[in-house]
Structure formats: structure tokens, C-alpha cells
Amino acid sequence: MQASVFVYTRIMYYVYILKNLEDDTLYKGYTSDLDRRLKEHEQKSTRTTARKSGDYKLVWYCMFPTKTQAIKFEKYLKSGSGRAFINKRLID
């Protein structure tokens, strides 16, 4: 008798922080495909990071099971208390 294998694939959502290596500014975003999104930033094909000079480095990311949770956390990171949290807990 052969055992059946149940494979469940679920889309995960990433909240990430990039650091501009030229001026040390941070960019916060979310995506369901982190590799693709990082390549877009690298190729300067994103509306937000294409306007700035300098390369970006991924300095932090976290996965969330739902898009809603990722969006809420990204929004928090962009708030005043979220920026303080980043500086105190996430980024050296």
C-alpha cells in the first residue's frame, strides 16, 4: 500500500525593508514574491526606488500568512512608532 502525500501550497506575503547604500534611507514594502520584487528594485523598474540614486540592500523581511496582515504591518512600519520600532528592534 502506498502512502498518500498531501502537499498544501499557500501564498505567503512578505514585508521587507531595503536600505539605500548611498544615503542610508530605508524603503518599506510588501509583496507575495520577494525574489521578483528585489530584482525589480535592483533594475530600478519600481516607481518609488527608481527615482533615487544608489543601490538598495535587503536588511530585513518577515512573512505573513495573509495579505491583510502584511499590509497592516507595512503601514505600521511607515508610521512614527513603526520607524522607532525599526530603529530600536530591527535595524542596527
Topology as H/E string? EEHEHH
The number of helical elements comes to 3
What is the tally of beta strands? 3
Strand content: 25-35%
Could you tell me how far the N terminus lies from the C terminus, measured between alpha carbons in angstroms?
A: 55 Å
The helix content is 25-40%
CATH level-4 homologous superfamily: GIY-YIG endonuclease
What's the main sheet like? 3 strands, antiparallel
Report the CATH topology name.
GIY-YIG endonuclease
State mean pLDDT (0 to 100 scale). Answer: 92
Approximate shape: globular
Q: How big is the Rg?
A: 16 Å
Q: In terms of per-residue confidence, which ranges show pLDDT below 50 for 5 or more consecutive residues?
A: none
CATH architecture type: 3-Layer(aba) Sandwich
- Helix- and strand-based class? alpha+beta
Number of domains: 1
How would you sum up this structure, described in words?
By secondary structure, this protein is of the alpha+beta class. It has a single domain (13-90), classed as GIY-YIG endonuclease. It is built from 3 helices and 3 strands, in the order ββαβαα. The chain has helices at residues 34-42, 67-77, 80-90; strands at 13-20, 26-31, 56-64. Strands 2-1-3 form a 3-stranded antiparallel beta sheet. A hairpin with a 5-residue loop joins strand 1 and strand 2 (26-31). The longest helix is centred in the C-terminal third of the chain and has 11 residues, at 67-77.
